[in-house]
Amino acid sequence: MDTSHCGRAEPVRVAVFGSFYRGFHVLSELLKGPFGARVQVVGVATDDVGGGFVSRERRVWAYPHCAGEESMVEELAAAHGLPAYKGRVKCEHFYQLYENDWRPDLCIAATFGQRIDARLHGYPRLGFYNLHPCVDDGWPSGYAGPNPFQALLDDGLDHAVIALHQVDDGFDTGALVALSEKIYFPPTASVVDLHKSTSPLAAKFLVQQLGTLIGAPARPHETA
């Protein structure tokens, strides 16, 4: 029996775990981009920069940034009627919210300061995926970890790619789905510069792959 409305399937329920520029641009694409009519963002989790559980000292928050960069994902979510969750995700309170209210079919992580456990990554029927900067050095990449841009700069590299990969119990070790085109940067670039310059491209790369993940092509004329 066809349960779709007027011949159209129900939107895929998507949750975003993200912050800073990558989280902002990914959430923007899901809310306003070409899949806006095919997906429904049902939950947003973002970093509480003051919370010790985000490992601030090992992530982008260790670098100079402004208050607006801490809250950009939360504010974008609020503008679309989505309260952002900023607490611990590995706790019974969040498990209940995730499984009973959000009920995501698909999850995307994009600069998120907490590890995802099996109860979370094993729930969505279409998978839980992460966008991670690295280079094409085999998979898992040698640039797995919480601060890949700093590692790339330390090694004197002039480019990065964005890996879209499944989330598993390891640290950026889940099965690789796709790699983006190379994104070049100057030797004077900082970690924050790289977040700013690569995040729009990472979000567009996700959109390119999203049809495969949800089993439906984009319709460019359909936006939220």
From TrEMBL:
Q: Entry's PANTHER family?
A: METHIONYL-TRNA FORMYLTRANSFERASE (PTHR11138), METHIONYL-TRNA FORMYLTRANSFERASE, MITOCHONDRIAL (PTHR11138:SF5)
Superkingdom field:
Bacteria
The protein's name: Formyltransferase domain-containing protein
Q: Which keywords does this chain's UniProt record carry?
A: Transferase
Q: SUPFAM superfamilies, per this entry?
A: Formyltransferase
**Domain Formyl transferase N-terminal: where?**
92-209
Citing just one GO molecular function, the answer is:
methionyl-tRNA formyltransferase activity
Listed GO cellular component terms? Answer: cytosol
Cite the source lineage: Bacteria, Pseudomonadati, Pseudomonadota, Betaproteobacteria, Burkholderiales
